[in-house]
Amino acid sequence: MQFKKLAVCLAACAAVAAHAQVSDDVVKIGVLNDLSGIYSDLSGQGSVTAARLAIEEMGGKVLGKPIELVFADHQNKPDVAANLARGWFDQGKVDMVTDFPTTSTALAVMEIAKQKNRVVMPSSGLATSILGEKCNALTAQWTTNTYALAAGTARALVKEGKKKWYFITADYTFGHSLEKDASDVIKADGGTVLGSSRHPFPGGDFSSFLLKAQASGADVIALANAGNDTVNAIKQANEYGITRKQVVAPLLTYISDVHSIGLEKAQGMYLSEAFYWDFDERSRAWSKKFFEKQKRMPTSAQAGVYSATLSYLKAVQAAGTDEAKAVMAQLRKMPIDDAVIRHGKLREDGALVHDMLLLQVKTPSESKVPWDYYKVKAVLKGADVFPAINPACQVGS
């Protein structure tokens, strides 16, 4: 009986201790992204909505303490992102920051978060440099990365015999990373890279780059860019008639991009994604909730914010604290499987390895309802498409 009383007492004490370990009596989430610029369509306010859905799913509390959400526009500028994050950490007491639709902003905030002992979970900061020499134990690259995106799309096209490639690349960290990772996959699978052109970020007129790519004789013109840059490049490629003779392959395409381009011009394109709203019952059920608030279906970046926020809060609950290192240790123990991420496992280097989808854009006649844009060609196992741990990453540092 005495042992039972002792056990009950210890359990009660542990519960009290867990409550006491929530800093400032609140768990605070920050969504830092592009609310007004080139990436606002794929991220923006939709990511804020996605984070709110995760908080609602937790009942608005964790460990008996309220969950608060803050958000801001980093304008795709690392210095702006760094200043906002520093204020969030020092004055706002934010515990975790997510989204980052430019890798340079994620890298800037990662360094500050490491100093302040805070968690960073990029949903749309995709360059593999996050997993390289800049990696640290408090960062989880949540939704996907440039290597996983390239591995799915590039391998599918090379397998079809499209072996000669030319790149049109956004001239900043993300674009460089996407081109490099795709080139490595292409060459490893027996393809060749004929050349590349780098355009300013953001871009406007892609005509000179497209004409140079057309003249190269490449089977595939690969777009290593994103957002409005991708949309505009594909539209201009159609105007020049390039898509009738060469394959235009956007290596990062969100459903919002396809919506802007239209099925008439986007039909037949291959792409890799971490999430598609119409994949199965779980994805459809969650996307319906998102649609009710945003009046459009979620991008994989927005869905990733939901998954990152929900997983973080569940880890806080399981760890009994919002202390950053303890939460990250718990995230690495947990299987990640929700409406967005399937068969996920967070590695020591910060890569969330999980199933990806190889998709093809439907023809207008194949699309039966609004946002019915993709055919699922294959489910790609995480072990087959995510990169190996980078030796430059000091694992656990």
Note the main attributes of this structure:
397 residues; alpha/beta; Rossmann fold; 2 domains; 5-stranded mixed beta sheet; 4-stranded parallel beta sheet; 14 strands; disordered N terminus
How would you name the CATH homologous superfamily of the largest domain? Response regulator
The total number of structural domains is: 2
Give the spatial strand order of the biggest sheet.
2-3-1-4-5
Query: What is the CATH class name of the largest domain?
Result: Alpha Beta
Strand tally, please? 14
Portion of residues within helices: 40-55%
Weakly predicted, low-confidence segments: 1-20
Q: Examine the coordinates and then state which fold CATH places here, giving the name of the CATH topology of the largest domain.
A: Rossmann fold
Class derived from helix and strand content: alpha/beta
Main sheet summary: 5 strands, mixed
Number of distinct helices: 14
Shape verdict: globular
Question: Mean pLDDT, nearest integer?
Answer: 92
Q: Report the end-to-end length measured between terminal Cα atoms.
A: 46 Å
Approximately how much beta-strand content do the residues carry?
15-25%
* Structural Rg: 21 Å
Order of helices and strands: HEHEEHEHEHEHEHEHEHHEHHHEEEEH
Q: What's the CATH architecture of the largest domain?
A: 3-Layer(aba) Sandwich
